[in-house]
């Protein structure tokens, strides 16, 4: 829907008068471009006819070899003027398709360079304004959606802990009391039931921690990433080497949450799709920016981006960051989250 509005606005811009309002020309940019080329060619022909009329130069029939350089020079001059006019007028349009691909990939801040005045210049300015509004609306919508998602995660995690977790704990105690007074023949069955309930309780706690990591709120980002890497190594069987900068300055809550969620999703993708034997998680400063990097030695970048990668891009855009992917040194996937220095600082109280 957003791109449809952009296309419609671009069409209105192309069809609109050049100067805007009642003082503008009624001709379209296409018409003005036509007249530029037409006028340039007219000047060339006029100059050529003037030279033929006022100079002793003549053109024989058939054309002599000595006259070919003059005719060739005239043709080259005409083509050269056409090429200059068309190149200067249309060259910014070459960047439209790459820009559209970058915007579709949720890369923020990309704009077409200004070309000054003129038809294409106004078209570029209109497109950049539309991209500004689109990016602002998208970030606002993403912020609301992610805030609602985190609120729902917190609610579900709390219910899992308080309701289901407590019920399973009570069930464990009941089984323990029943096993203490049960005949010898039933104790083994009760013990098996107790272990099953205990495993279910552990799984509920694990899910609750993934939905809302308490360690992130209690101990901070570095401890949360360390716990995430350790838990991933145990559960997924893929060792994760950590390189976390302990001297990082305080970060905003939104930034910490985005970094944690991106790391969580990237490691989940390693476990599900990469077929990796090792992974690396690093967090630090690079040229003043906050940089999170997750790399593995698996099968490399995916052919098509799925919902998980798209979600990571949305989270990155929420805090003014950018997510990039490439081939890691070991041949696997390398995911890099870069958050600019201004966005990564903790807001002043």
TrEMBL record:
GO molecular function, one term: protein dimerization activity
EC class (word): transferase
Reaction catalyzed: ATP + protein L-histidine = ADP + protein N-phospho-L-histidine
Gene3D superfamilies: 1.20.5.1930, Histidine kinase-like ATPase, C-terminal domain (3.30.565.10)
GO cellular component terms, A-Z: membrane
The protein's Enzyme Commission number: 2.7.13.3
Keyword annotations of the record: ATP-binding, Kinase, Membrane, Nucleotide-binding, Phosphoprotein, Transferase, Transmembrane, Transmembrane helix, Two-component regulatory system
TM annotation in the entry: 33-54, 66-86
Keyword Membrane applies: yes
Protein name: histidine kinase
Gene source species: Actinomadura viridis
């Amino acid at each position: 829907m957003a791109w449809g509005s952009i296309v419609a606005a671009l069409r209105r811009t192309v069809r609109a008068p050049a100067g805007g309002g009642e003082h503008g020309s009624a001709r379209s940019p296409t018409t003005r471009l036509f007249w530029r080329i037409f006028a340039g060619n007219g000047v060339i022909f006029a100059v050529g006819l003037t030279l033929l009329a006022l100079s002793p130069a003549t053109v024989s029939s058939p054309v002599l070899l000595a006259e070919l350089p003059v005719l060739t020079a005239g043709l080259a001059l005409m083509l050269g003027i056409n090429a200059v006019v068309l190149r200067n007028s249309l060259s910014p349009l070459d960047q439209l398709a790459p820009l559209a691909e970058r915007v579709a990939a949720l890369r923020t801040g990309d704009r077409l360079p200004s070309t000054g005045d003129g038809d294409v210049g106004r078209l570029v300015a209109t497109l950049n304004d539309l991209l500004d509004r689109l990016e602002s609306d998208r970030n606002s919508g993403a912020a609301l959606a992610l805030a609602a998602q985190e609120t729902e995660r917190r609610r579900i995690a709390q219910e899992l802990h308080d309701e289901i977790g407590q019920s399973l704990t009570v069930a464990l105690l009941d089984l323990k009391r029943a096993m203490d007074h049960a005949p010898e023949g039933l104790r083994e069955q009760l013990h098996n039931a107790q272990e099953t309930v205990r495993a279910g309780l552990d799984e509920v706690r694990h899910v609750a921690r993934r939905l809302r990591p308490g360690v992130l709120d209690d101990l901070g980002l570095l401890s949360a990433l360390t716990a995430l890497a350790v838990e991933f190594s145990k559960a997924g069987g893929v060792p994760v080497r950590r390189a976390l900068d302990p001297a990082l300055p305080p970060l905003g809550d939104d930034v910490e949450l985005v970094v944690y969620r991106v790391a969580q999703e990237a490691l989940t993708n390693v476990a599900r799709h990469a077929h990796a034997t090792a992974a690396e998680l690093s967090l630090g400063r690079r040229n003043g920016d906050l940089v999170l990097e997750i790399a593995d030695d698996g099968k490399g970048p995916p052919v098509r981006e799925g919902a998980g990668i798209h979600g990571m891009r949305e989270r990155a855009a929420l805090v003014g960051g950018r997510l990039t992917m490439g081939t890691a040194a070991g041949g696997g996937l390398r995911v890099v989250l870069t958050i600019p220095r201004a966005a990564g600082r903790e807001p002043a109280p």
